[in-house]
């Protein structure tokens, strides 16, 4: 009974959308070295380690004054997310923005933080939510089973498979 009660308490704490980010850099080594990200001052962040440029904000938000304003758009299906990425290919003077693959998206996870598990200095106002990748489950070849996509939950940084008909968010990326 104690384990069940503790589990329910932890679930309630970590499911709260109003929960502030918690980071433990003294006990968990930060994932990203100092200087990995550069703020370009135009709503984009350069990842110099991985050779990528990221949108500072989630689609639906606008970069303004060092933060992201507005509400992120939730996409009901993977196909909608892919279409939205295609519709948002032009941004900040570049026309090759796309939905990140699972490895790229997973590389944004800051393992020393939760709620959200991302560096809020460079990616402010990121919701503790699940984000689409463009990577689908290659083992899912049965036409009778819904396609499954790979996702990252920025609440805790977990990666998982799920059917692709759920409300999820997207962040855009482009190669340097």
UniProtKB/TrEMBL annotation:
Alphabetized UniProt keyword annotations: Signal
UniProt KW Signal keyword: yes
Q: Which domain of life is it from?
A: Bacteria
Biological classification of the source: Bacteria, Pseudomonadati, Pseudomonadota, Gammaproteobacteria, Vibrionales
Q: What is this protein called?
A: DUF1566 domain-containing protein
Q: Which residues form the signal peptide?
A: 1-20
Write down the PANTHER family for this protein, in alphabetical order: LIPOPROTEIN
Lcl C-terminal domain ranges (all copies): 43-174
InterPro entries, from UniProt?
Lcl_C
Give the Pfam families listed for this entry: Lcl_C
């Amino acid at each position: 009974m104690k384990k069940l009660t503790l589990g329910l308490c932890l679930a309630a704490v970590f499911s709260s959308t109003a929960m502030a980010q918690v980071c433990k850099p003294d006990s968990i080594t930060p994932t990203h070295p100092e200087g990995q990200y550069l703020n370009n001052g135009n709503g984009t962040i350069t990842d110099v380690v991985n050779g990528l440029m990221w949108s500072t904000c989630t689609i639906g938000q606008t970069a303004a004054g060092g933060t992201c304003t507005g509400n992120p758009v939730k996409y009901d299906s993977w196909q909608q997310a892919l279409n939205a990425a295609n519709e948002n290919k032009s941004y900040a003077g570049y026309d090759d923005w796309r939905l990140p693959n699972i490895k790229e998206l997973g590389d944004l996870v800051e393992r020393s933080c939760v709620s959200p598990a991302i560096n809020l200095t460079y990616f402010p106002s990121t919701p503790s939510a699940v984000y689409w990748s463009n990577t689908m489950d290659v083992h899912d070849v049965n036409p009778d089973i819904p396609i499954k996509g790979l996702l990252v939950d920025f609440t805790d940084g977990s990666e998982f498979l799920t059917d692709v008909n759920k409300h999820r968010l997207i962040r855009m990326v482009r190669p340097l």
